[in-house]
Each structure stands twice: as C-alpha cells, then as structure tokens.
C-alpha cells in the first residue's frame, strides 16, 4: 500500500488535503526551503507519495521560484513521489472547496448545525410581474 504524506504549511489548501486524504500522514513544514524539508524522507522508498498543497497562484508567484524548488527536489530522487493535486486550481477555487467541505480559513471544521436545510418563503405576498 502506498504511504500518503501531506506537507502542512498552514494554508487552506493543506487543510483541504488533510480533509480529503484522511488516512495520510501529516508533516509540518518548517522554514521556506523545500529541499531541506525533504531531507527527512528516504528517496529510495518508492511506495510513498508526498502531496504538496500548492495552487497555481502559488506556483507562478515570485517568478516561479517554487517550481524550481520542486524540480530540485525531483532531481535528488523524488521524481515519481511528488504530487501536486491543486496544480490546476487557483486559490479562490481551493477556498470555495474548503468552504464547501466545512473547513474555515484556519483549518478547523465549522459547525453546520445552524444552517437551515430550507428556505423561507412568504406565500401571502404577491409578486407583481411586468
């Protein structure tokens, strides 16, 4: 069985990944050096998939430095182990999916007990049409 590992950088995308992949191991990211964070993993283990919570907005920001960091990680032996599930989604899409899943911006699941499963309609009021 493939071991799933999620990099938790505190973003909404990482919280959404944790919600979607409940059986995955979560690893907190320390610092901004991606290659240094990968030193804790063995590149010889081919049965692991490391999920990075980067959206398309993250990947194109800062003159694509993050893409270069991911390429350097793949060059040291993690080529088929790095997964970018949100590579084609922008930040607004991820925020919408997280809100739809009940995850707030801070990562905790919202209480949906106050949500009404219905809409209130006032039948005594007539709507005029033009």
Textual characterization of the structure:
The protein is of the alpha/beta class and 130 residues long. The chain contains 5 helices and 4 strands; from the N terminus they run βαβαβααβα. It has a 4-stranded parallel sheet with strand order 2-1-3-4. About 4% of the residues have low confidence.
Any descriptors?
alpha/beta, 12% strand, elongated, 4 strands, 33% helix, 130 residues
- Overall mean pLDDT: 83
Helix run count: 5
Uncertain residue ranges: 107-111
SS elements, strand count: 4
List the helices and strands and how they pair.
Layout: E1 3-8, H1 12-20, E2 25-28, H2 34-37, E3 48-51, H3 56-60, H4 65-78, E4 82-83, H5 91-101
Parallel strand pairs: 1-2, 1-3, 3-4
Summarize this structure briefly:
The chain has 130 residues and is of the alpha/beta class. 33% of the residues lie in helices and 12% in strands.
């Amino acid at each position: 069985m493939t071991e799933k590992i999620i990099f938790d950088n505190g973003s909404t995308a990482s919280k959404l990944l944790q919600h979607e992949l409940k059986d995955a191991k979560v690893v907190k990211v320390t610092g901004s050096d991606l290659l240094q964070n990968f030193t804790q993993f063995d590149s010889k283990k081919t049965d692991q998939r490391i999920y990075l919570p980067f959206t398309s907005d993250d990947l194109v920001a800062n003159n694509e430095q993050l893409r270069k960091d991911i390429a350097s990680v793949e060059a040291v032996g993690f080529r088929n182990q790095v997964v970018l599930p949100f590579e084609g989604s922008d930040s607004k899409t991820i925020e919408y999916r997280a809100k739809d899943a009940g995850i707030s911006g801070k990562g905790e699941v919202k209480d949906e007990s106050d949500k009404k499963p219905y809409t209130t309609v006032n039948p005594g009021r007539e709507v005029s049409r033009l």
